# Entry
Amino acid sequence: MARRSRTALAVAGVLAIALSACSSGGGAEETKEDDGPVTLEFWAWGSNIDKRVEVWNAENPDIQVEISAPAAGNDMPVQVLSAVRAGQGPDMAQAEFTQMPTYVSAGVLHDLEANRDDIVDKFSEEVIESVSFDGTLYGIPQDLGPALLMHRKDLFAANGLEVPTTWDEFRSLAEKVRTLEGGDKYLLNFSSLDADLFMGLALQAGAEWWSYEDDAWQVNIDDDATQEVLDFWKGLVEDDLVSTYQTNSPEYIEAVASGRVFATIAGAWAPGPLLNQYPDTVGLWAGAQIPQWDTDEPRVFARGGSADVILEGTDHYEQAVEFLTWLNASDEGAEGLVEVNKFTAALHGQEIDRTPPALMPDDTEYWPTASEAASHLVSVQWGPNTQVAFTAITDELGNAIEGTAPWEDVLPTVDKIVGDDLG
Amino acid sequence: MTTTTAPRRATTDSAPRRKANTIRRSHHVFAYALIAPALALFAVAFVIPIVYSIGLSMFSREAGSGGAYAPKEDAFVGLGNYVSVLADPTFWASLQRLAIFAVIMVPLMMLTSIVLALLLDLPRVGARAFSRTAIFLPYGVPSVIAALMWGFLYVPEISPVYQLAGSIGLELPPLLRGDQIYTAIINVVLWGGIGFNAIIIYTALQSLPAERIDAARLDGCNEWAIARHVKLPHVLPATVLTALFSIIGALQIYSEPQMLSSLTTAIHSTFFPLMRVYRDAFAHDDLNSAAAASILLALATVLLSLLVLGLRTFTSRKANS
# Structure
């Protein structure tokens, strides 16, 4: 009996230690100071934003911004969500447009309605729409990624190839590239990992995957427009007219570096990463408009593009808005973003005369091409579970490319997974 | 808990007994003090997370009311998450792939480990210490690094192995395509695990009395016969232990396929159960469903471990008899 009670005591003691160890995490948060300098925590992955933060910090001793990049784009939402739920979240974060619905339906974002008027007139209506949910503004747009056909100018010229303007021409060109000497050349790579690209291609063809009617979400991924796009790419893959390396896998990078893949569909931000990955190809690339289904009515989708958001837990909403408005929605800010090679979401930044990207120092047409693409952007209704759709597309397209499931299953399966997740 | 039963002495004299009790009591206090840090760690790193996960698995984040993007709300669903995990065909498909993987990997692991250990134990093996270290070294390489390294060797376009084979007109099978992906994963796992398991079996061999081997040799056994009739039965319990490790390792397989998945379309996000858990928790922000699936997996691990441990008791009893 005595022994048992001692054991109980020991266990209780252990639990007490464990619990106290557990609870000693939250205490440091409470220091709220209205006067004196505040430090804002800003999680952002975008390259060169730190340079803009330095400028701000030098000019604003009272509002210091501490920038850190806890994760690359894709893993960021989960890190932010976990941190906010644990009461340890940052004041501000960068969010891809595609990730905004995840944040909003997780309920972790501070709305920006109080400052709406200072923000909205700096951007196009479509851009404001992509950061507004249920009519409420939740983010300040930073950069846009209108899709461009980034291609190897030198290889196109050497082989007498012309940039395709329609998807039919694209297919003929892909056939032609396959007949080039060596037999190992491809016009483009199509990877199941690029779910956002596939969604963009479907959007271009007129798909509307999510719609909200009568207080309920409708999922319509298995529609005619998407089917048409899928059939087009299925044909290219099955006839071996495009390569199917995993994006950013070593074999893909090797294929691009050695000039075996001639082009890629990327956002206007592409020159930055391309320069990092293939420093030997400076001057060899050019940007062009993506192929169209109907050239009379050009439609362009975005690959990427991001906004900055303010998290629910912040004690410094006013200061955060002040900083983010300066960074993204002021003329000075837009000029600064242009300086660090961003294609700004702000209209002012898009109109600035600027030097070509470092990847293509002679290509004075690059930024005008990007602006032209941005003027044809289609507006998007993101579903609240866009991430679920993306993993499902990656899985099902992967199965189809791999040959473990028929192409006909891709859209019905994705449609069902996304629908069930919402139901 | 285990060895507290002191022999009972029938005695009428109470004084020595009281003394013995006091000594025993102070021993106990001392013992508890010593194991307290371990218990505390156990509670913090094991019990509390499990209790927390069980709690998580009972809730679900349901769509909130008021608009298309209304914040989700926590709702108690009891065993609902378990039911939906068990009703999900991708869960069973991932278990099935896990079973295929384990059924091939575990016997191969045991077999190769035994052979390596027996080879190490052969008399007249030179540089034994060196071989032992060389065999053990891959175990020290983190599985993520190992998968990356092997991944590079698997990609025909950049692999020196494929290029070498190609230059002499040999066509190697594409290991990152179709069902060959099992070969690719199992190879990485074996490469990392054989050394560890071989050393365990080798250590067991070291405890074999030299007289028994000498006796067998005097009886006319050659090395093969000694291995077959003396050494093998002796290391059976240790081999079962390595099998246990391998089975638990198989259930927890995650980093190797995850790393390889960036190289191939043959591995998708729900290929193995833990990858599915990761997808739920970190891509879909559905911690509740991830917690339910994890607990189901943990239960399966415990059950399998008990089964193998039972087998081990059985075999060691047999080996000793």
Summary: The first strand of chain A starts at residue 38 and ends at 43.
